[in-house]
Amino acid sequence: VQLQACVGGLVQAGGSLRLSCAASGRTFSSYAMGWFRQAPGKEREFVAAISWTGGSTYYADSVKGRFTISRDNAKNTVYLQMNSLKPEDTAVYYCAATSRTYYSGSGPMDYWGTGTQVTVSS
To answer: Could you give the C-alpha distances from 79 to 32, 40, 41, 43, 122, in angstroms and in order?
Structure first.
């Protein structure tokens, strides 16, 4: 599986941004997907995950209620809708995939996409 995230962007605090990640390979629909982020000087952290059918989603406490993960298996794409953005959301965002059908934020992912910069100005 190869993952390619769209270009992120610069947005003001309180604004919104949607990231997308396109996957190659016919097995995409059977993989759980996730988004992670890494801020300067910090370790990479879990942001959100979605099960293979899209029926289950999981979020880090820091983004719960503001971010929404979704997927379109017909388009081999996973999305991260980010609302009410804060300066502390500034980071490089990565999409990732696991051959497991469910993923709740712990444990390794099998495939990683290239990161995309998201910058939230105050």
So the answer is: 13, 23, 26, 22, 24
